[in-house]
User: What shape does this take?
Amino acid sequence: MPQSTAYPMKLTQCSRLSDPACDDVIVKISLERLNGQAIPHFIAGQYVRVDMPFMKEPAPAYFAIASSPYHQDSYEFVIKSAQGMSEYLVNLPLGSEVEVEGPIGKGFDLSHYKDYNVILLSVGTGIAPLRSLWGKIIQERQDYAKVSIYAGFLTALHTLLTDEMNELSHHDIDVSLSLTTGHENWEGAVGYVQHALAEDAPSAENTVVCLAGMSAMVDACTETLHNLGFHDDQILLNF
Assistant: This one.
């Protein structure tokens, strides 16, 4: 991959995604080029490095792009406020400038999987790179067979992008939501996302899986996929 170059962008949107009652603050932010140019081309699942110009703190950090590659006006991200750059971005005033480098990483390249079934699998803010991917798939829906999304969240207060995912049935995309901790009004799956996957037991034949999340989740889901007959070359990671 050619050496990427840093370029200035400005914060144009910051909206909360997690429930106001949730202790974890998770937001969607948008960054636009200062000169109005289109953002660099990227592959769904890639990420960028974000830095604050002329500041030593916070340290630069990497964030997966959550917007579709077909959306060329801005980058969108799904960010959980924690220490460092993520907390800084969540509290940054609109119009503030940041420095962006990228896109970086291999992303989810589905160019060799035309007519395959595609499974998207994530937990928490791991939904960000998969949102980029399902945005791409919507535009190319005729290129794939069955498309399914398995997304896991800690509680109902932590669910993200559910309004968007509820609309995916209009694009012939199936969605399964799991909560680690359910509640009396929850009718979906309860437990870890790999449990919902194992219960459905999708066929590995002519199927590719795009997997995003924390390393422990990736390991657990990979084990489940192996038990279902998937091989490593059918399990794609974006890094």
